[in-house]
Specification:
Layout: H1 13-37, H2 44-60, E1 84-86, E2 96-97, H3 100-114, E3 124-130, E4 133-140, E5 143-149, E6 155-157, H4 160-164, E7 186-194, H5 197-209, H6 218-226, H7 231-236, E8 240-249, H8 257-266, E9 276-278, H9 281-294, E10 302-309, H10 312-318, E11 328-332, E12 336-349, E13 355-366, E14 369-375, H11 379-385, E15 392-397, E16 404-408, E17 433-435, E18 442-444, H12 451-462, H13 474-483, H14 495-505, H15 510-525, E19 528-529, H16 530-536, H17 544-554, H18 557-567, H19 573-580, H20 586-597, H21 599-611, E20 614-615, E21 631-635, H22 643-652, E22 656-658, E23 667-670, H23 676-684, E24 687-689, H24 691-699
Helix pairs in contact: 1-2, 12-13, 14-15, 16-17, 18-19, 18-20
The protein binds 2-(butylsulfanyl)adenosine.
Length: 702
């Protein structure tokens, strides 16, 4: 998408200067789009090509390097290096609603669930939905001891020192140590860290003056400032925070959410003065409308309102859905929209063969972000909205989702506009396309012979959240694949030995970049966490969170393979154990079994196990957790906890859970009808615990 096709060595000085200016502006806009809404305008390869062209021109014309050149900007934070914190109470998110009617439905649902009549009082606390980063702050006897980010909700990063560096953050709660104070012995306050708009603009001015990258929005600035390994940088940035809920608490001293907010405010914790108590859907509606009107005048960015049932006993009864409480909801402001022209519809083939139609758009500014692609989801979506190439369309971006086409402006439709015909053959390998039963998705049936699937699997394997092989981005992966040097993941680890000298001689490579690539491959070879490895395999339905759950459960690749072998028999204990893992149901289990049943997958995994040191899963837990460093084995049926609840509890308390008893076992937790493991434990003299002993141990913090 460069604005010039002239080879770099043919550029005149004037052309170079003008192109560098264009590149600086364009790459900045792309970064904004990428960081602001997680919806990159270009794919990695196209983006990398622009960066590379910028560097090549700069190399030839060093005197033309601009102060705002993309080559001068520093990259994102190094989150790998933060200590991990296991949340003893998961940090959940909120379900979203978008319309006024949704408020009424939300309240009706709650009334029905609680069995309340229309005249029974039901209060809500309404709060602005702050657009920042959530944090957890643990106080013991009113003294701040540990701070964490949300992370994936189960495990976050330790930001204790960073929180301490925020001016308004209380290190001690008011009343701590004073007799008669009602601060719970252990209290984990949760809330949002954010940057005020004024502080954000001032920071960006300063960044640009220093020739550094400007932040795309206050949320990114807050994230970039909080997640700094050097807390003195956090100190220099002006961050703010409000508390809005709690996690772990030794004793609840409040009966309503309102009372909780009042208490923490009295104890010196900042609480948003915009929070209100509402007694009817009409009042909530008024609150939302007033907030929307005042949104731009608020000191900080918000993206909606949050409604929370006020009474704690009602909250307890309502409980939680998979990822969010039933007693609270986020009401989001409407998405931002713009009008543009649909230039083309491309059908992409993903790593599992799913065909996804993508709209190429005339680039358009949607609420400050340039959008040139939108997802069309699937064939049904195109038909339902009657989307055709050449149409004028309304695109929208909301929050973090990929831009979408909302509707077509039929009165502007050109006369020669034909309906889009979805391919019945894979656009890459020509295999026929099949529609999965009960699903809207269509898949290429080519499997292994489809180059698109193979190369997408490889790109996933090396990507940042998977093996993170630097120097092997999407473009280079495609290049090595096209040359036949890397056809499957295992080939990556033979690359240096087999094609090292050719790569060093490649145009635009040279010894240095080749060496960088080989050294990052070696780095991976020397050790990769089991969870990352499992995620990298690209098994359908196994995303990062599921991969981590599997790793935390089976602990080693060898153990996982052995258990998969046993689990093929669905009446086996291994299969029951597999589907008993939190959030792994029969669908995910089937995908895993299908994957490991295929000889070529198994062969590839074994080959990779020979090339890479796959580190056993070890939670980088806090040392002060009650079961840190202990290995536990569960056996038999426990009286109240399911096996997966018990394991989750053990992991959260810092323990490792093993499948069999050995000399390394610290405790065996014994349920009813325990078999040989109990005998083995007695033989080896391993301590035996009842479920209650185990629960007490978990709750007993050192
Ligand atoms: S309460 C279990 N209150 O929104 C409920 N969340 O979409 C915990 N957020 O992860 C959240 N303002 O980062 C709550 N007043 C508010 C909030 C708020 C912003 C964020 C929070 C959460 C996300 C969920």
């Amino acid at each position: 998408m460069s604005n010039s096709q002239i080879p770099v060595d043919k550029l005149t000085e004037a052309e170079a200067a003008s192109e560098l200016a264009w590149l600086a502006k364009t790459i900045f806009q792309l970064d904004q789009a990428y960081y602001q809404d997680d919806a990159p305008v270009l794919d990695d390869a196209e983006y990398d090509a622009l960066k590379r062209r910028n560097e090549e021109i700069e190399q030839r014309f060093p005197h033309l390097i601009r102060s705002d050149s993309p080559s001068k900007r520093v990259g994102a934070s190094a989150s790998e290096d933060f200590e991990k914190v296991v949340h003893s109470v998961p940090m959940l998110s909120l379900a979203n609603i978008f319309t006024t009617q949704d408020i009424y439905d939300f309240i009706d649902r709650i009334r029905r669930f609680l069995g309340l009549s229309g005249s029974d009082p039901l209060e809500f606390v309404t709060e602005p939905k702050l657009d920042g980063l959530s944090f957890s702050a643990l106080y013991i006897k009113g003294v701040f001891v540990r701070g964490a980010t949300r992370g994936d909700g189960a495990i976050g990063e330790d930001i204790t020192e960073n929180l301490k560096a925020i001016e308004s953050f209380p290190l001690r709660l008011t009343g701590a140590g004073v007799s008669g104070s009602d601060i719970p012995e252990r209290l984990e306050i949760r809330g949002e860290v954010f940057m005020n708009k004024a502080d954000f603009f001032a920071l960006n001015r300063q960044q640009l003056d220093l020739g550094k990258k400007a932040f795309a929005n206050p949320r990114n600035a807050a994230a970039g400032s909080l997640r700094q390994l050097d807390p003195s940088i956090t100190r220099q940035r002006r961050l703010s925070l409000f508390g809005y809920t709690f996690g772990d608490v030794s004793e609840e001293k409040w009966k309503t959410h309102e009372e909780f907010l009042k208490k923490i405010h009295q104890w010196g914790f900042p609480v948003n003065p915009e929070n209100r108590l509402c007694s009817s859907p009409q009042e909530i509606e008024k609150y939302f409308n007033s907030l929307s009107e005042r949104r731009s005048g608020l000191a900080y960015d918000i993206d909606g309102a949050v409604y929370k049932v006020n009474r704690r006993d009602y909250q307890e009864r309502l409980g939680f859905l998979a990822r969010s409480p039933r007693w609270a909801i986020a009401h989001k402001f409407p998405a931002q929209q713009a009008q543009t022209v649909l230039k083309n519809i491309r059908v992409q083939v993903g790593r599992t063969g799913v065909l996804t139609p993508v709209a190429d758009l005339e680039p358009v500014n949607v609420g400050g972000v340039i959008v040139s692609h939108a997802t069309l989801h699937n064939e049904d979506e195109i038909k339902r909205k009657d989307i055709r190439i050449g149409d004028h369309v309304i695109v929208q971006r909301a929050g973090d989702v990929i831009p979408q086409i909302v509707s077509v402006l039929l009165d502007k439709r050109p006369a020669d506009c034909a309906a889009f015909v979805f391919p019945c053959q894979c656009p890459v390998c020509g295999s026929h396309v099949v529609r999965i039963k009960d699903e809207a998705a269509q898949r290429c049936s080519g499997g292994l012979i489809c180059p698109a699937q193979a190369v997408e699997k490889l790109k996933h394997f090396v990507s940042r959240d998977a093996l993170n092989i630097e120097g092997l981005g999407a473009k280079n992966t495609q290049f090595f694949f096209d040359r036949g040097w890397v056809k499957t993941a295992g080939d990556i680890f033979d690359l240096e030995q087999r094609y090292g000298s050719e790569i060093r001689r490649l145009d635009g490579w040279g010894d240095k970049s080749a060496e960088n690539l080989f050294s990052s491959i070696r780095k991976v070879r020397n050790g990769i966490g089991l969870d990352k490895f499992l995620f990298a395999l690209g098994i359908p339905q196994v995303g990062q969170a599921t991969a981590r759950l599997l790793a935390a459960h089976y602990l080693s690749m060898q153990a996982l393979l052995t258990q998969m072998d046993l689990a093929f028999d669905k009446s086996s204990e291994a299969y029951q154990e597999l589907i008993g893992i939190e959030s792994i149901g029969e669908v995910v289990a089937q995908e895993l079994l299908d994957f490991f049943e295929e000889d070529h997958n198994r062969g590839e995994v074994l080959r990779l196990m020979g090339s890479i040191k796959i580190r056993d899963f070890e939670q980088n837990v806090q040392k002060n957790l009650p079961l840190a460093g202990k290995t536990l084995v569960f056996t038999g049926t426990l009286p109240t906890l399911t096996r997966s609840e018990a394991k989750t509890k053990a992991l959260a308390a810092g323990a490792k859970v093993a499948g069999s008893v050995s000399k390394k076992t610290d405790f065996v937790v014994l349920g009813e009808e325990a078999g040989s493991k109990a005998e083995k434990a007695r033989e080896l003299g391993v301590s035996i615990l009842s479920e209650q002993d185990f629960i007490d141990l978990c709750n007993n913090r050192k």
